[in-house]
Design brief:
9 strands; five-stranded mixed β-sheet; 130 residues; four-stranded mixed β-sheet; mainly beta
Length: 130
């Protein structure tokens, strides 16, 4: 017996797989140092992909700067809680009245935990002498 005109409908679901990455961007790339107090430079570190588990990533600051330019350490670790997609990293630059050249610096991400890989590894800033 022959069946004519018989069709079977198949449903296909396409799932986009977003890689588990962590990246950094600068929100304040160039700022005046100031003659006292501190000036904040803000960076956003974000992760994409499966954020259901906690993870961490290290960061370091290098360039035309040293420890006397910042009120905190030049290295650190960012801990993401389960479900957390972004972290605001604020680096406070110490103002002084010393006349000096503008100072460029880079924040670099490294050593992500678990299955995470680095997407955008660096973001830069410039401390302008004023």
């Amino acid at each position: 017996m022959e069946r004519a005109g018989c069709f079977e409908t198949i449903s296909v679901t396409v799932v986009e797989v977003v890689p588990d990455t962590v990246s950094i961007i600068s929100l304040d790339t160039v700022k005046s140092e100031g003659n006292g107090g501190t000036t904040p430079f803000t960076f956003t570190v974000s992760r994409s992909g499966d954020t259901s588990a906690a993870s961490s990533v290290d960061y370091s600051i290098d360039g035309d700067v040293d420890a006397t330019d910042f009120s905190g350490p030049l290295t650190g670790k960012i801990d993401f809680a389960a479900g957390q997609e972004s972290f605001s990293l604020t680096l406070d630059v110490i103002g002084d009245s010393v006349i000096e050249a503008d100072e460029a610096f880079t924040v670099t991400l490294s050593n992500p935990s678990g299955p995470w890989t680095i997407g955008t590894a660096t973001a830069s800033g410039t401390i302008q002498n004023d």
